[in-house]
Amino acid sequence: MLLHLKLRLELQLLGRCAQLVINRHASKGNVDKEVMEQMEKGYKKLAESKSKSLLKKHLTKEIFEKLKTKTTPSFNSTLLHCISSGMCNHDSGVGLYAPDPEAYKVFADLFDPVIEEYHKCFKKTDKQPATAFGKGADFENLDPDGHFIVSTRVRCGRAVKGYPFNPCLTEADYMELESKICGAVTSLTGEYKGKYMPLTGMDKCIQEQLIEDHYLFKEGDRFLASAGASRYWPTGRGIFLNSAKNFLVWCNEEDHIRIISMEKGGDLGKVYDRMVGGVEALGKQLQFNRDERLGFLTFCPTNLGTSIRASVHIKLPNLMCDPDEMKKLADKYRLQIRGTSGEHSEAKGGVHDISNQRRMGLTEYEIIKEMHDGIKGLIEAECKAKSA
Ligand code: ARG
């Protein structure tokens, strides 16, 4: 208990230090002495730690030495911006974020191997294929009798062209972005018609209910906070919800825009088609930032490419009896298992959140197919395990 408290305190302090420094930019291409010291200290701690993060694995001494003096041309971002979350949170799975789009190039020696490993072999010579949504209607309902899947959700992330990511956004940028995004979402029509609710001034009860119902993002994610993504919170943040509450848009949380479609049951194709319709409608009003090689640009390297995460809340009681076997099976299908309230959360009532792991190297349609075939495989395995 005491040890736990001590650890929490240390983490909090570390988080605070990193944020102090992260707010300081390098001056004209030179990394400040204070930033450098912070980086050296954090790097040493991470290297000595038992962290299993991809950051720790790929930030070798050689790469650290090569990158620590570099800055991005437009925003003067440093390596510290990229690694501070993983340095503060040794329990990160990845631990790396891009403060601005140029960081993916300037710090490519670190981003490339992390991207390659996370997205299961997207090499630095590979290129994200052109966007191809296809038709979700090609896929049958994964659970027509409602035995396993509680709900299905598909989301993607988008960055608005001309703006950096969270750590480099000014308060004015947040407000400007919000006003552009709000303008675009509130002009949607038909099934997409809805209401934008800014976080600023939102009633606490309403906010808590929206989080509880899995519509709204949680506040105070320590991984994001130490990456410099919670500055000026809640300014510029908000959520758009259509009237059927099955289509939503997050504004300025981890990414500038998150476009989400969700509903009860296992009709993945239908949920996907609704998200695609929304993305296409918004793309007519906003210019999204897409890179030739990396695809749609996002703050976290895990979301590049298609930026699509399709997930189901699913009950697989027999498979879940053996978590190690379950993990192996999920890996085989390139699926990721999370807790019920999203990332870094526990599973409640035997319900797990299972999603596609990779988002790159395949088209949008192929990503959904990979998810569809994987979940179908898991359900078949569950039925076999039950009758065994
Ligand atoms: N930085 C966190 C970690 O490494 C989250 C990584 C992926 N999730 C995300 N929301 N971007 O564990």
TrEMBL record:
Q: Name one GO biological process term.
A: phosphocreatine biosynthetic process
Question: What is the protein's name according to its record?
Answer: arginine kinase
One example of the protein's molecular function in GO is: creatine kinase activity
Note the PANTHER family from the entry. ARGININE KINASE 1-RELATED (PTHR11547:SF38), ARGININE OR CREATINE KINASE (PTHR11547)
Question: So what family is this one in?
Answer: Belongs to the ATP:guanido phosphotransferase family.
| Gene Ontology CC terms, in alphabetical order | cytosol; extracellular space; mitochondrion
InterPro entries assigned: ATP-guanido_PTrfase (IPR000749), ATP-guanido_PTrfase_AS (IPR022415), ATP-guanido_PTrfase_cat (IPR022414), ATP-guanido_PTrfase_N (IPR022413), ATP-guanido_PTrfase_N_sf (IPR036802), Gln_synth/guanido_kin_cat_dom (IPR014746)
Q: Which residues cross the membrane?
A: none
Question: Organism classification, top ranks?
Answer: Eukaryota, Metazoa, Ecdysozoa, Arthropoda, Hexapoda
Limits of the Phosphagen kinase C-terminal domain: 148-385
The organism named in the record is: Drosophila melanogaster (Fruit fly)
